[in-house]
Amino acid sequence: MLTAQFSSGRVSIGMRNLSERCCEMVSGNTELLDRARSGDELAFRELLDPFRGDLQLHCYRILGSIHDAEDAVQDTFLGAWQSMGSFEGRSSIRTWLRRIATNRCLNKLRAESRRLKPDTTSMSDLPEPTRLGEVPWLEPYPDSLLEGLADPAPGPDVRYQQKEAISLAFVTALQLLPPRQRAVLILRDVLGYHASEVAQILDSTKESVTSALKRARATLQQRLPQAGKADLMPSPKSAAELELVERFAEAYSSRDVDGVVGLLTEDVWFAMPPVPYEWQGHRQMRQFLAAIWTGPRAERRLIPTRANGQPAFALYFPDPHGHVMHATGLMVLTLAGDRISAITRFDNSVLTYFGLPRTLPTGLQPG
User: DSSP label at 188?
Assistant: First the structure.
């Protein structure tokens, strides 16, 4: 069955990395399109598989979870298969798929409640949190899935560079918008569609889209006052970023509280999704680090990776009774100039998306 094939396998990294230009060339293949319309499954897959990575990123921005985004993409492909025969080519294949994906994501959000009840059972040793986190379902997005996905001809209305539009801060702020406003802002300010095109995608009116975008921009400006100023972040993999990240890794590995805090902005935020709490500021960070760095000193390892266009580390700690190190999660750093403005730590459930193991032999690192 088609649905079983789509849900059981993942398209290869090489397929994800096909350029958008190649995708549009494929979509212009009349013979392939005709075969797909007639029910040829192989032609359907050849025609649409190159768009999978683009769709997953689009769904991730709307849903904030890579797991949910994968499910939404599978649902999108099923919907595309069911309606392929009626595709008339009035829009590009990419826009047609984004329309299906956007509406599948909105339907998913309408059908579920994502507010989680705070769990205080394991918080007794930690400092009092500054506030409750509002997006406990947030997950990181591996940079390996971002390669080759840039639109070669973004629309004139794009407001956000790609590195900002995938950052944890931006994706988190999107989750705080009502679903429809979220979709409108992504389609207009991130992907650059005109208001009339967004209205068609959402089966709405241009006036409704314009109104929703105005409200979404106002909320985003309040939540992210630096939105649209991606130049405040060091360039990915630049010398400045590398130096700051290496200093942090050295201080964290050696449990140097002063060294870590000295690299943070005064208003730094620390969060641990899905734990629904957040801590802010140097004093809170000192108390938090003191609470988690109790007991005898032992070797710890930080394995570098990247998530959401930001530096990240998988954290490993030794097993006191064996010759292995156990992963304790993934930590993503948000940088602002020569300081770290946020640290977001995720649990072990996200490691598989980064190709990282749950355990390491002592003294060895993954290749």
Answer: I
Q: 180: closest CA among 137, 214, 157, 150?
A: 214
Which DSSP string do the residues of 257-303 spell out, in sequence order?
Answer: HHHHHTTEEEEEEEEETTEEEEEESHHHHHHHHHHHS-SS----EEE
- Cis status of the peptide bond prior to 274, with omega within 30 of 0: yes
pLDDT band for position 152 (cuts 50, 70, 90): low
In this structure, are residues 332 and 140 in contact, taking their beta carbons and an 8 Å threshold?
A: yes
Instruction: Express each pLDDT in 276-297 by its tens digit.
Output: 899 999 999 999 999 888 766 6
CATH code for the domain in which residue 77 is found:
1.10.1740.10
Distance in angstroms (rounded) separating the CA atoms of residues 331 and 289? 14
Give me the amino acid identity at 255: R
Burial of 67 (C-beta count, 10 Å sphere; 0-12/13-18/19+): middle
pLDDT digits (tens, 9 = 90+) for 82-111: 999 888 878 889 999 999 999 999 999 998
The token pair that represents 363 in the structure block = 């003294």
The residue out of 79, 112, 145 marking a domain boundary is 112
- Which amino acid belongs to residue 93? I
pLDDT digits (tens, 9 = 90+) for 174-201: 999 999 999 999 999 999 999 999 999 9
CATH number at residue 319: 3.10.450.50
Contact by Cβ (8 Å): 338, 328: no
List the domain range (segments joined by +) for residue 292: 232-361
Indicate the residue among 93, 112, 131 that finishes a domain. Answer: 112
| The two structure tokens encoding residue 221 | 């400006």
Structural tokens at position 285: 């960070």
The alpha carbon torsion through 90, 94, 95, 96 (nearest 10 deg) reads 60
Beta strands in the chain (DSSP E): 131-132, 264-272, 275-280, 301-307, 310-318, 324-336, 339-346, 359-361
pTM reported for the whole predicted model: 0.87
Q: Is the pLDDT of residue 122 over 70?
A: no
State how far the alpha carbon of 95 is from the alpha carbons of 28, 82, 294, 331, 346, in Å.
13, 17, 53, 34, 33
